[in-house]
Design goal:
Length: 487
């Protein structure tokens, strides 16, 4: 009677395990209202973001640098190794769904001495043990889901790191070219100041200019020379940073580009705000981390419920040393089942459940914040791209007028119609206008990179779906089976 009752209990337990009476936890989703359009729309005729968006700037050298960075960046290699670690963790978690088999052997020799002489007894044994925890409440399956969601998050983090890397390479490259443009302007201004200085010196020798005029123009020449040195310093430092981004030592590293004027500033279509939720890998990572936390909550709740452990043992024993084929060999087989229910643990399990639930709520807010920050990034980049384009147009007109003013001031100074102060003021105005125009060009390029990055850099919904597919529950079992079969 007892045996039948035990068998029925085991049968019911196995049936419950197979039908999956899991302790599920509904996943919380953050609520974020999504507008129908951006505050700042894209320009007319703008193109949608391409996965190879950096090519839109029209620089083959930038393309080469990006290819080199993708192949040799330490940051991207680190992110890839974290994905590999997460894949291994999925296999570890999936192993809990299968029985554990262990084999052991032992040999012993015992010599006994007495009044009747010495006696030697030898024996050899071989045991095979199988243990399996019935996953009645889905604790182990929840652990697998958590590991798979964490893997998906790591894959999205790698994609986000790649986007950040490409953006960093593009921005650093534009910085180098902008500094070289400003250096060219500063050297041209120095040559212009030296030319005017020669004119002032000649007029002073003829008594048409004072020593004060000569001193003022010499100070202008020295100021122009001093302005070149910090630009050269920044150029070298930016080159060194760019070298590290592409995975090369700074020594001997250089780029061929000399001016930001040769680069195109692309017009970008931002799409709809709702599309952003499936176009950014960092948002997909936040969602996957939330899914992992939800699975952890289910596992923590299941840990409070009873567990059933099945154990089977088979063994061979022989009285002959290192021999299991002698006539004295015996066979033993045992099957056992144990039911465990936590009664008192000082609140440890309930504390772990509370932590898991709080962690899930935290990640809900983290996800919501990431969505809001994503909208903010796009709005800021759109405003910057629009306003900087207008500023560059205005500044181009300012530079044209400043150049004409300096030309007329020099002519009038030669004719004696104006003093040197007018020429100096015209020089300063032109130098500042030229330098500011170069900085605005750089800012427009940087704003375009920021907008590409804020929009996900062409990271598509199909990639997000493929990453989410890796978090499906059956995949864990498939990986473990393949791993076992491979060994």
């Amino acid at each position: 009677m007892t045996t039948n009752l035990f068998r029925r209990s085991i049968a019911v337990a196995v049936a419950l395990s197979l039908t999956g009476c899991a302790v599920t936890s509904p996943q919380i989703k953050p609520y974020v209202p999504v507008a129908g359009a951006w505050n700042e729309g894209g320009p007319a005729g703008a193109a949608v973001v391409s996965p190879t968006w950096w090519q839109s700037f029209g620089s083959p050298e930038l393309q080469s640098l990006v290819d080199e960075a993708l192949a040799g960046s330490p940051d991207l290699a680190i992110a890839t190794e974290r994905v590999n670690q997460a894949e291994a963790q999925v296999r570890v978690a999936g192993a809990s769904l299968f029985p554990m088999l262990t084999a052991g052997t032992d040999t012993s020799t015992r010599r006994t001495s007495g009044g009747g002489g010495a006696t030697t007894n030898s024996s050899t044994g071989l045991t095979l043990t199988a243990s399996y925890e019935l996953d009645l409440w889905g604790k182990n399956r929840a652990g697998v889901r958590s590991a798979e969601s964490s893997l998906a998050a790591k894959e999205f983090d790698r994609d986000a790191a790649q986007l950040t890397l490409i953006s960093g390479v593009a921005t650093s490259y534009f910085d180098v070219l902008a500094l070289r443009t400003r250096l060219g302007i500063a050297r041209e201004n120095l040559a212009s100041a030296e030319r005017v200085n020669e004119l002032v010196a000649a007029r002073a020798r003829n008594g048409a200019a004072s020593a004060l005029d000569v001193s003022r123009q010499e100070a202008t020449v020295l100021s122009q020379r001093a302005a070149i040195l910090p630009l050269e310093q920044l150029e070298r430092q930016t080159l060194a940073a760019l070298a590290v981004l592409v995975g090369r030592p700074p020594e001997g590293f250089d780029v061929k580009g000399t001016s930001v004027v040769d680069l195109s500033v692309p017009a970008i279509d931002p799409g709809l705000p709702a599309d952003l939720l499936v176009r950014r890998p960092d948002l997909a990572s936040a969602e996957a981390q939330l899914a992992a936390a939800n699975a952890d909550v289910a596992a923590a709740r299941a840990a409070l419920l009873p567990t059933i452990q099945l154990t089977g043992t088979a063994g061979l024993a022989s009285s002959a040393l290192l021999s299991l084929v002698s006539s004295g060999t015996t066979t033993a087989i045992g099957i056992a089942a144990s039911l465990l229910q936590p009664i008192f643990d000082g609140g440890r399990l309930r504390g772990q459940k509370t932590i898991a639930e709080s962690r899930e709520r935290e990640l809900v807010e983290t996800y919501r914040k990431a969505i809001l920050s994503g909208f903010e990034d796009v709005e800021k980049a759109l405003v910057a791209a629009s306003r900087l384009a207008e500023q560059e147009q205005v500044q181009t007109d300012v530079q044209t007028r400043a150049g004409e003013s300096l030309r007329l001031a020099e002519v009038r100074y030669r004719q004696g119609a104006d003093d040197l102060l007018t020429v100096l003021d015209a020089q300063r105005t032109l130098f500042a206008a030229q330098d500011q125009l170069a900085e605005l060009r750089q800012s427009r390029l940087d704003a375009a990179v920021s907008l590409y990055k804020a929009l996900g850099g062409g990271w598509s919904e199909a990639q997000a779906a493929a990453g989410a597919a890796t978090a499906a529950a059956p995949s864990a079992v498939d990986r473990v089976v393949e791993s076992v079969a491979g060994r």
